[in-house]
Amino acid sequence: MSSIKDIISHYSAQVDAQLEAMLPAATGPAEPLFAAMRYSVFNGGKRLRPALCFAAADAVAGSDANTAKVAAALEMIHAYSLIHDDLPAMDDDDLRRGKPTCHIQFDEATAILAGDGLQSLAFQQLCELSELDPTIVVELVSTLSRLGGCSGMVAGQAIDLAATGSVLELDALKVMHAHKTGALIEASVLMGALATGQASQEQLGALKDFARAIGLAFQIQDDILDVESSTEQLGKQQGSDATNLKSTYTSILGLERARSEAAKLFDQSMEILENFGEKADPLRAIAAFIVKRNH
Ligand code: GRG
């Protein structure tokens, strides 16, 4: 396992098998709901959060079948957030991953329900981790509710909606992204480590700092791509931040300073991982991918 492509496909194969097993078959009276949940989970996401979850587990003690279940829960929360983010009441987007968004492919009510269904299935999955010590299960549920909910990602979305149309200062932009994008990235890294049952407080502290650095770098790169890439490359509308009057790292700092800020955060994230040795190589490779990706 060496190139980032190999690392991500190795982890994706495991999380995809788990998602396939967990998601209800698209049959029966709730068929449109199940079809919409499957559509949104299996329509070409990069599986970055699952990869971070696996790589954090590998950096601590090694990933296993429980890691795949935790990673699947994280990807379901991510998929739900994208479905709801694309709705007319939020960003009103027609295109996601190069395909019609969930509410365009199905309808708005089904898309709302698909997001709801994915969110609760994620927590059900965690509660059913019967091979883990119950205190670890509670820690996993608590971490995902805190960082995925109204202290994390959901608050970030609310801050973003409230700020649309107004110009944000850099510090306010950082707070918004630390919640909206960074919190679930932090959850992915922490939950991978927690699920091993072997992470020390020192390791968890370092992994949290690592996740915060790459979470911000991820968002800066996202803003750069929104300016530099094509709609085809992105699989979503290019330039949508400017169209939606959103403050971004590139609108505040300009392209060059945004690039150097992402590079600085990457360097910081590498320093933080110094004590982990070569077991953290997949985590290092994913961090490098985050700041160099072109989609
Ligand atoms: C609606 C509760 C709620 C939250 C939405 C994550 C989010 C909050 C909105 C997504 C909007 C957006 C485009 C944010 C920028 C960063 C981001 C999360 C991009 C999508 O993540 P990728 O690139 O997606 O990992 P793929 O498609 O690869 O899974």
From TrEMBL:
Reply yes or no: does the keyword Protease apply: no
Q: Which cofactor does it need?
A: Mg(2+)
Q: Which key words tag this protein in UniProt?
A: Isoprene biosynthesis, Magnesium, Metal-binding, Transferase
Recorded GO cellular component terms are: cytoplasm
Q: Name one GO biological process term.
A: terpenoid biosynthetic process
Q: Which GO terms describe its molecular function?
A: metal ion binding; prenyltransferase activity
Cited InterPro entries = Isoprenoid_synthase_dom_sf, Polyprenyl_synt, Polyprenyl_synt_CS, Prenyl_diphosphate_synthase
UniProt keyword Thylakoid, yes or no: no
Alphabetical list of Pfam families matching this protein: polyprenyl_synt
Q: Which NCBIfam families does the UniProt record give?
A: FPPsyn
What is the designated name of this protein?
Geranyltranstransferase
Source organism of this protein record: gamma proteobacterium HTCC2207
Taxonomic lineage is:
Bacteria, Pseudomonadati, Pseudomonadota, Gammaproteobacteria, Cellvibrionales
